[in-house]
Amino acid sequence: MTVTALPAPAVAERDPAHIRWLIFTRDRGIFVLWVVLLAAFSLWASPYFASLDNAILIANAAALTAIFAAGVAVGIVCGALDLSIPGTAAIAACACGWLMTHGAPVWAGIAAALVIGALVGLANGLIALRGFNPIVVTIGTLSVMTGLAAVITGGYTVPGLDALSFMGTDRLLGVPGPVWMVAVLFAAGTLFLTRTRHGIRLMAVGGSAEAVRRCGIHAERYKVLGFVISGFCAALGGLVTTAVVTEASPAANPGIIFNALTAVALAGVALSGGRGSLPRVLVGALILATISNALTIKGIQPYWGTAVTGLLLLASLGLEKWVSTTVSRRLVATAQASAHTGTR
């Protein structure tokens, strides 16, 4: 007896197109969202929004969030969420400021800050490898680094750091220093993650550490590397913040991690690890700055921007969950339909 009414072949032909569309929404939807926002705000906040000067302002405003978000994203990609970033930024900035005010050259202060950031990341990674929860570890590190930053400066800010202005307020070819820093960081980071053996392995560890181990790769080393990169980016962000305001503060700003996580979530970086894109993270930071800029031009209170940012975070998490679940279900259904068709 033969049943001819089964829709399995139709499902097998139709589902791949739907899956491709869902994957496009997850991986490229953020670019579409940014273009839509730019077009909408160009009309809504005309004529001030759609100008070259305002575009530079948006890029400069997004720079700090982008730097911190890069560190958060790399950590998440390899399965290492780092919440100590605000404390790392504070101690790196204070160390640099203390050295500079005690006669050290600018390059030495910058180098010391970046090394401190990498060492904090190394410590986080090594402690986490002992079986401790990385979130708890980095929260503890956040408190320790914030306290040590206050110890270094005596609890006060370190003013007069104008020598760092090339990283902050100075412009090259009309573009602010932070934007150039972001361009270099994201170009190097993208090349590392997509074109080098260690970068590809780092992403693979986040996807399946056990599978990587079975291939003979030391997954633990790459998780530590993720923490080190996160700490380095946090230190760089602390330096750029210091350069903009020309003083180093020992106070850790919790808004840093909130904005960074929002940009990362908007970019579709899987919080479970193994998937992410630095260019999308950059666009996520630009979206946050674009919304804030447009609201400011229209004279709307800043707390509305905070509310919109929170809603975007929740929406992006919901979209990521829905797309992942839907794609998985359709792939399973397509595979079952194909297997059933092959046995007939």
From TrEMBL:
The chain crosses the membrane at residues 30-49, 55-76, 83-100, 106-129, 136-157, 177-194, 224-245, 251-271, 278-297, 303-323. It holds the Pfam family BPD_transp_2. The keyword Nucleus does not apply. It is a multi-pass membrane protein. Its main location: membrane. InterPro entries: ABC_transp_permease. It is found in: Cell membrane. It comes from the Bacteria. Keywords: Cell membrane, Membrane, Transmembrane, Transmembrane helix. Coiled coil: none annotated. This is ABC transporter permease. It comes from Dactylosporangium darangshiense.
